[in-house]
Structure formats: structure tokens, C-alpha cells
Amino acid sequence: MLQSIRNWCVVCMLCLVWVCENKELPSILDKYNNSRSTVHLLNYAAGSAASTNAYGLGRPEQTTSNSLSPIHTTQNAVDEDDVSYISSNKFTVSTTIMRLLLGRTGTFYLVAPDDPQCPTVVYPITDISGIVDVPYNVTLNANTSIFEVTVDTINPGSCVIHFNVSDDVPFGLSDIYVRVEVARNEYVNILIIIVGWTYFVAWGVSCYPQVVMNYRRKSVAGMHFDYIAYSLIGNLAYCAYNIGLLWIPVVWEEYNDKHPGGVNPVQLNDVVFTLHGTALCLVIITQMVIYDRGGQRVSTVCIGTCIASGVIAAVGLILTLKTDILDWFHYLLYVSYIKLIVTLRYVPQIYFNHKRKSTIGWSTGSIVWDLVGGLLSLVQMFLICYNYDDWASILGDPTKFGLGLLTILFDVILILQHVIFCHNSKQKDTESKKYQAEFTLLEKDEKYVPPAKV
């Protein structure tokens, strides 16, 4: 029965990974967040249709010929089913993000409106030099009203391409941009995805041994309640940060202003991990309600910490909405620190084990999987830094980096506790059996003298 439950859990998580990697989840959000058009490029240039980001939400669209490819080696054609246009003063751009391999060339299209005063020459410029090379100017194709811009890669990294026009042209292109991310190696980028989803599975599976143990024992005694409460608060805070940085353009733009040329440190697996962790915390809380608690309860300190975290998050939200003191990125960043702080949730469990001189009731299988997840999360961050030459992104997501380090530290302590306490428990059990045998012999033979203790 338990083996079947574990098998179903693994199958469900693998299916979830497959669905997310095929981008069904982002496509659902995009359908809600963006008013999309699949009008042919030439028809659009003639002014027959338009497609704009009406809601101002959702991650910027990508023009791809293969939705499963993590990096686009070239973009020399436009598919009417794949193009999403971003407009400015009736100008449109075929894509707002390009992912290229080092040494490859990409192409995107700037579509001009049907206006006699429209400029016939635009000047592409990059905010960071040395990453890509763009032409000094691009001339309008009179037959199609399209500027074709070719991008040559120079070094790994990330930059943003903007456009200038002559001073006498009454058109502004200040909010038209194309973000270009250049990677060293396609296989490293694939490895980043594999490692990311592997750490998601490891951290996801780490919760199930505790759920199964509680179910088998019909008891949650031995599991410190503060640990679960801190986990729930931390997952909610970190989930808000990950969703904001991955899918909300306003947050991403503010991040890019703070870390120009940086690559987004949040991956899809980060969002799914926090959502999955939150759901399992709720399952364990349900077990805490219905199973034997052994007289345990959430401590007053933990309750106060959770309330304080909620008050701080609410005050920050008001300041972000009503004042200019905080922008959205910094608000979500500070909220994510709650996850980092409550990583100290391991401390009550460590003290609880030390006080009892036992790890009974606490699943060591969870700790092993948790340790694997922490190691792989750091590996993924370093792979991203290497592939895009963006070592500053570690500081761009201090929560993920700190979470991995603290997880490894506390997991090692818990594993050592299990080894020490388990050894002591076995030693005491052996001594107990030894003396029990001696007293049994003594009852049979009064002349028996037990050996002296050393």
C-alpha cells in the first residue's frame, strides 16, 4: 500500500514536470494576460490588425520556432502563429526576448506604421557593450514597412537593444526594446533545466516520508509543530517573490534596472517547488489536526513570529501601493527574506531531538532528500552564472542562495543527530539485553556472579 502511494507520488511529480516544461502553464497565463493576435506580419504592417499587452501583466512573449528548445540558435523567419507584437506609437516589434548561443546570429523585426512621417532609418543601440553587435542603422523596407535587425553575438551575457530616430521625426521608440540573452553552451543550458527539475523533485519528495510516517503511526508526536508553521509561512513568501520575478513584467523590469545585463535567476521549477511545498504543508497541518499530537502545540514564539511576518508584509504592501518608498521588486525581495529567516525552523527540531536524545518521530528520509535538493539548487545557480557570465545574479536572488546554504548546514546537523542518537539507542538496547540475560541466569543459579563493570 505504502509502496503504491510512493510510486503514484513520483509519477504525479514527473507528469507535473512534463506539463510545465511543455509550457502549458505559461500559455494558460498568457491567454489571460495578453490579448494575442496571429495576424500575418505583412497584414499587420499594412494596419489591418493589432495586438497589444492590454493588461500589462504576464511574462514578455518569445518568438520561437520550437517551444521545447531552451535556446534559439537563430531567428531568421517569422511564423504568424508564434509572433506576439509589442507596440509603441504604432511601431511593433516581433519579439521582446531573444536567446542565442555564443557565435550564432539572430534576427528580429521592427514593423513601422503606415504613416508618411514614419522614419525610414532607425538606430539600434545596446545598453551594455561587448555582448552583441547590432548594425549602426537599419533602413526601412519600403515594400513591407519592416526593419530587419540582425544581431551578432560577441560574449555571453545579457543586454537590451533600444532604438533611436532622428530628432526631426515625430515618433518615439523609448518603450520599444528587445532583450538578448547569450549563452556559452546549449548543453549547459539543458543541464540547468535538468538540475532545476531534479532539485524540485528532491525537495518535493523530501516532504513525503514525513507524511507517510505520520499516516502509518497515526500520530505526529516527535515532529515539532513550529517547523511546519515556519515552513508554511516561508513557502508563501518565497512563492510570491518567484511568481513576481518570473511572470510579472513590472517586477522584472525593476530587477533589470537594479541588475543591468543580468539573467533572471528564477526558473519555472522554483515556482512549482514553492507551490508544491505549500500544498504539502497544508496536508501535514491536516494530519496535525486529526492525529495524536502527544501533547504538542505551536509555541508562543512561533505564533508571534508568524503574526509579525504577516504585519510586516501588509505594511510593505501599503507602502508599495500608496507611496514611492518601495517598488514592487524590492517589496517582493524583502518579503522573500521571510523564507530565509524562517529557514531557522530547523532549530526547534534540532533542540527537540537533543532534549529527547532521540530522532523518533522525525523522518530521516526527508532530511536526505532535503540535503540533495539544497545541493542541486546551488549547482543550478552556479551553472546559470557560468553559462551567461553573470555571477552577480547570485546576489540578485540572495534568498535562493542563502536557502541552499542553510538547508545544507541544518540537514548535516540533523543527520549527525540521527547517527549519534541511533547509535546510543542501539548501545543502550544491547546493554539492557545483556544484563537481562545475566539476571535470568542468576535466578537459575544463585552461585552465578555477574562480571564486574569496567
The Cα radius of gyration reads 29 Å
Helix count, DSSP H or I runs of 4 or more residues: 14
**Strand ordering within the main sheet:** 1-2-4-8-6
Strand content: 5-15%
Low-confidence stretches: 8-88
Percent helix, as a range, is 40-55%
Strand element count: 10
Describe this structure in words.
The chain has helices at 2-21, 24-33, 41-45, 186-205, 208-217, 225-247, 249-258, 268-290, 300-322, 328-341, 346-356, 364-388, 393-396, 398-444, and strands spanning 86-88, 91-93, 97-101, 105-111, 121-126, 132-133, 138-139, 146-153, 157-164, 178-183. It has 454 residues and is an alpha+beta fold. The strands form two sheets. The protein has a five-stranded antiparallel β-sheet. Strand 1 (86-88) and strand 2 form a beta hairpin. The longest helix has 47 residues, at 398-444. Mean pLDDT is 74; it is low at 8-88.
Features:
5-stranded antiparallel β-sheet, alpha+beta, single chain, 10 strands, elongated, 14 helices
Characterize this entry briefly.
The chain has 454 residues and is α+β, with helices and mostly antiparallel strands. It is 54% helix and 11% strand.
Question: Could you give the topology of this structure?
Answer:
Layout: H1 2-21, H2 24-33, H3 41-45, E1 86-88, E2 91-93, E3 97-101, E4 105-111, E5 121-126, E6 132-133, E7 138-139, E8 146-153, E9 157-164, E10 178-183, H4 186-205, H5 208-217, H6 225-247, H7 249-258, H8 268-290, H9 300-322, H10 328-341, H11 346-356, H12 364-388, H13 393-396, H14 398-444
Parallel strand pairs: 3-10
Antiparallel strand pairs: 1-2, 2-4, 4-8, 5-7, 5-9, 6-8, 9-10
Helix pairs in contact: 1-4, 4-8, 4-12, 5-8, 6-7, 6-8, 6-9, 6-10, 9-10, 10-14, 11-14, 12-14
